[in-house]
Structures are given as structure tokens and as C-alpha cells.
Amino acid sequence: MQNSFFRVRFNARRATLVAAIAAAFPALPTYALALSAEADAKSSQVVVQGDRPSSLPTEIPTTIEGIQAKEIERNINAIDAEDALKYLPSLLVRKRYVGDYNHAVLATRASGTGNSARSMVYADGILLSNLLGNGATFTPRWGLVTPEEIERVDVLYGPFSAAYPGNSVGAVVDYRTRMPKAFEAHAKVLGFSENFQLYGTDKTYSGKQLSASLGNRQGDFSWWLNLNQLDSDGHPIAFTNKLMSVGVTSSAGKAVSGAIAGKNPQNQDWWILGATGQYHTIQDHAKVKLAYDFSPTLHAAYTFGYWRNKMDSGVESYLRDASGNPVYSGDVNINGKKYTLSATDISNSQNRLEHLSHGLNLKSSSKGVFDWEVAASLYDYNKDIARSPLVAIPVADSGGAGRITDQSGTGWNTLALKGIWRPNTQHTVEFGYQREAYHLKTLVSDTGNWIAGNADKQFSAFRGDTNLQSLYAQDAWRISPHWKTILGARFEQWKADNGALANASTTLNFASRSENFVSPKAAIAYASGGDWTYKASLGRAVRMPTVSELYQGTISNTTIVNNDPNLKPEKSWTTEWSAERSLHDGRGLLRTTLFHERTSDALYSQTNTLVTPNVTNIQNVDDIRTTGLEIAFADNDVLLPGLDISASLTYADSVIVRNDKFPASVNKRQPRVPEWRANLLLSYRVTDKFSSSLGIRYSGKQYSALDNSDVNAFTYFGFSDFLVADLRLRYQVARQWSAAIGIDNLNNKKYWAFHPYTQRSVVAELKFDF
């Protein structure tokens, strides 16, 4: 196997790869643009495949972690694609319930779940990250990948490769999905159930998933089809509340019972009045992949993805009148104080989404002096309709006035032209041109019937485009059998235009902007010739403002207000130093990585206290610094035959060191970045047919507010620590049949990331493989 020793660990469980890398260190650099690892019961190997679409460059000057399909199947109760990342070091996906399609944001070492634009997710080279905005509602489009498709997942940590834009400052996640070598067929039936108890809700929420795949290779042509339907009844994720202090001492209002006293994150007394956001979602997924080998060195591939989502949200009022009837709106009286519930305080909603993706790839893999690749992708909001009422329940249950939010036509497209030049055995030069274009289009209309009515009159509208064109190059230079370095740079030209904001009668345009940036990259590694490898990486990343961050504001008379036309991009310098040791003749691995990141002009929503009146919007935070340590450990069949251990521990000291507009935040922790994270995964193969796994996940205390004023974490709006355990048992019933049962959150921890996470859940599945 030929490979760069910059790759730390492709397979957390099969550390035999480390020994292979050390043995192959004097060999030539890898020529493939994509990697896949395949394991069987006897051995594990990394198969270099230059004909497969992927976002990965050939040389990777950073820490990389990965997991492959057999590990996911054996160890993880994977219902959604993001579940594959559950036990990888320093990562957290804010998944609130099964099928969470609009808030499952990825957090990394120095970036929290409010910074979705600081990581990138790809599947077979297609960009799934939603870089139209930055925050919980701009989650990667995980639904375009199903667990049954996944062949492997690789995660690159940090912005050290010139092949990626500044959004890679946190991490790059690269999914590789299956492509058959012969005829194969798969089918799976999965069910799950959660007993959810919180505030006044005590109910069971369940769902099911059906998946089928079919593929074949016939000569030079191969194809793959995957169909999946997820029917998920999620627990409530939002809760209607009123501060006790806003109540007016009075006998007015309808006397009600059922309100639950509590405290908000700032430790203020409040009432919890009802549960909302109880989503019943049906998601349909279809994936078609076609590949053709024109010659042994010229390959073409096309991917079409389809994702449809039907969501209806339910509500539950905790308030009851004297006759025991639920109360949803109006003036209510609680303990001698009057509170007013608006028509939308306890309100339902609908989503009807239909998204499409296309990916086209043409590449050469001659492994000679020169190879090239052309890759293009398109993600299209073919249909994206959200409906909400303006009238109260029970009228809203059958219709009534409301609003329709239409984002149809929104989306992004990418183009990449890549080349690899190998002038001699010491150098591998990678270079290319990349273009990414984003278009956001939102129309909000009034309607006479929020459930089935047409858009009658424009209420507001918003649009904007951003475009990023980049040139990059990096040279991997093998200085000697023990030393290797990668030097590179990325030139980026960013443009934002066509921005406009409208209300019912006025449309105002934003000014266009254009800026240029250069981001240098450097890495060096030393292989001692024994069990040790040492590496150091340095990279600059410029994370451009997204459309929704840049074109913010409201209209006052004929002027756009609450907008910062000079919003700056984030600029980060990141370094990491790693020492890696192979253990037990290649069956174990220990990696220690020290990382440091300094970000200037970080993009956050905050209040500017330097102006009167104060302004709250997206602003630049002057300086955030993060220093941390990451330790990863893997041990296979050493302590006990059949027992595999994978563990990681991350410490991050992430502090706001300067913020002139909001001084109260200085010397406070960066939001949503905990000091400590840890994962432990124990996998034990009892017999050749029966396996078990126990996973433990920990995250320490964190804050959501820049000034860390949200001190009460275990409540709605809070961000709490957690320690949860997951269990999975899998049995190979026959050659083609397998069954598994698992429990997520075995200890039934009630924990929060603004919304409540899933409580104890049982997952059962039956699978057929031909």
C-alpha cells in the first residue's frame, strides 16, 4: 500500500493500518484521490481507489479519523447518516430526535453547534453543507445519505489542506457510499421507540425505517440504487413559557391550572405552559449512482439524489380551565396574576420539502506524471414550503389565516478542476480551480387558509447570492526517507451581490461586495523509523459571511436598518502538533494532538452596547483564542481476544479575549464549546456470529450566551453537560440474515442543547444481504 504518513488513523478499530503506513513510508506518495477501507473477519486493509468520486485530496496534511461500514453496522445504532460520527474524537452532532432535518449541526474542536458554517460535509464529492447561513437552522443535508449506503466516513481536522475553502476551519467530513463490484441486494426494517418524560409531557414516541438497495457491475458499467423511508414521531422540542415577572396582579383572565414553575437559563422564575414542536416527519430518500470506465485510467460517475420531507407538528397545552378543557390562547390567570397568550404561543406548523442533488465526476488515474479530475455538483430546493397559522387552536386545527414561507429555488452549485503533477519521486504537486455559488430566495406570503390555501399577498421577501472562486496549489515533498513536508496556498475571490429585502410594499437592494484573500498552508512530518511519527501543521482559513449573515436587517420607512454593510469575514490561524505511537505490533495506536486556533472577526449575533439605542444583529467579535489537547487511543484484540477499544479525550480552553462592542463577553468562554469531551467505545465479538458494543459519550458544561450569563443549563434554552451510554447487540442469524437490538441513552439522561435531546430509546432492526 502506498500512502502519506500525514494520515493519522483511517480506522479507529483496525490499527494494523499504522504498521502498514510505517512499512510503506519510503514508498512513493499515494496517487489516488479517494480512499476506502474494507475489513473482513480475518484482516483489515485500506484500498486505494483512484476511480471513485470523493472530495479528499491525495495528500492530507492533518489529523484524519475514520470509520467504515462494518464498524457502523456492528457498533452503532445508526438510523441517520450523522450517527456514524457519534464516537469520533472531538465531534458532536446536535441531533434532537430521529430524522432531525433542520437543526442537526456539527460541532468540532473549537467550533460549537451555533457555527455550522465552520465545517464541511461531502458525500461522494457532493457538498451537503448548507453554507447559506451559519447556525442551527443551516444543518448539513444529512438526508441525502442513508446509513445503508455508507462504505466509510473520513474526517479531516482543521484547515490545513489547500484543497478546501475557509469553511473547513473546524473539520471536513467525507462520506464514501457503496458502489458494487458484483450483483448485490440489501433490505432492512428498523423500528425505534422513546418514552419521553419532561415537564407536563409523559408519552411514548416511536417510528420506523424501511431501506432497500440494489446494485451490480457489468463489465465497465456499474450502478447502484438505494431507497429509504423514515417515519419518525419525535418528542416535543419547544416549550411555551412566560416569565413570572411579566404577570400582572389581577383577578382578570381565565383561571387555569397545570402551569409548571421553573427557572430559565438566567435563573429567572418562569412558567412552562405547554409543549410545541412535536414533529411527525416522513422522509423519502432515493439515490441513483452510475459509473463507467472508458479505459483503465479514465472514469466517469453520475449521482442523483432525491429527498422529500412531509412534516406536521403537534402541540400540547398544559393549561386547563375549570372544566378540564385545554387552553391555548387569551388572557389566563395563574396564582392571581394575569398573563396573555398570543394566538401563536402554542401553535402548530407544516413543512413540505423536496430537495434534489446532482453530482458529475470525470477523472483520470494513470498514476503517471499527470492526472486530472473534473467534478461538478448541484443542490436544489426544488420545493421548500413552510406553513404556520396566525389564529389560535382550535380554529387553527382546520385552517384559518396564516403565513406561507417559500424557499423554492434556493440552492448551491460547485465546480472543481483538479490536477496532479508528479515531476519525480520526491514531489507530488496538486493544484486546481474551484467555484462555489450560493443562492438564497425566501418569500413570505399571507394566506386565508394556512393548511391548504394559496399565497395571497406578499408579507416579506429576501434574496441574495454569494460566489467564491479559488485557485490552490500544494507540493508534497519527500525530503528524505524520514522527513516529508507539504507547502501550499489558496487564493480566494469572494463576491456577494443581488441582495434585496422587501416588505409588503417596498423592495430595497443591498450593495454588492467583493474581496480577495490568500491562505497559506504548511505541514511537516518525521517518521522515526520505529513506532513514532511526529507532525506539525499550520494553516490560515478565511470564512466568508454567508448570505443570511450578510444581508440581514429590517426595513424602516425606506431604509434598511439593523444591518452591518461592512461585516468582515472570519480569519483563523490554526496550528496542531501530533505525536503518534503504534502499539502492540500494530494492533493499537495512541495519538496526542495539541491544537491552537486564533480567530479574529468571529461572526456572532450579539448586542452592540457602544451605540444608543443598542443594536442586536450579526457582528464581528474581535478575537477568540482556543488552545486544547486531543488524545485518541485504539486497541484491538490485546486485552482480551475479540475486544476492541476506541477512546478519545478532548480539552479545549476557548476564550473571548477581545470584543469591543460587547465588553461583558471578554474573558468568557466561547459559546457552545465545552472544556471537556470524551468518548469510549467497547466492542466485543462474543462469537463469529454474535457481537456486542457499549459506547459512552461525555460533554462538559457549556454556555450559549457570549457573556456566559446562561448559568442554569438543565432547562429549556439551556446547554447542559451530559454523560450517556449506548448499547448494541447484533446476531448473524444466517448467511444472509442478521438482527440487532440496541438502546441509546441507556441511563436515560435528560440533557439539553437549547432543545431537549432524546431520552432512553430502544432500536431494533432486521437486515437481509444478498
From TrEMBL:
Principal subcellular localisation of the protein: membrane
Compartments where located: Cell outer membrane
Example of a GO biological process term: siderophore transmembrane transport
Residues of the TonB-dependent receptor plug domain: 59-172
GO CC terms of this entry: cell outer membrane
Similarity remark: Belongs to the TonB-dependent receptor family.
The protein's name in its UniProt record: TonB-dependent receptor
Organism for this UniProt entry: Undibacterium rugosum
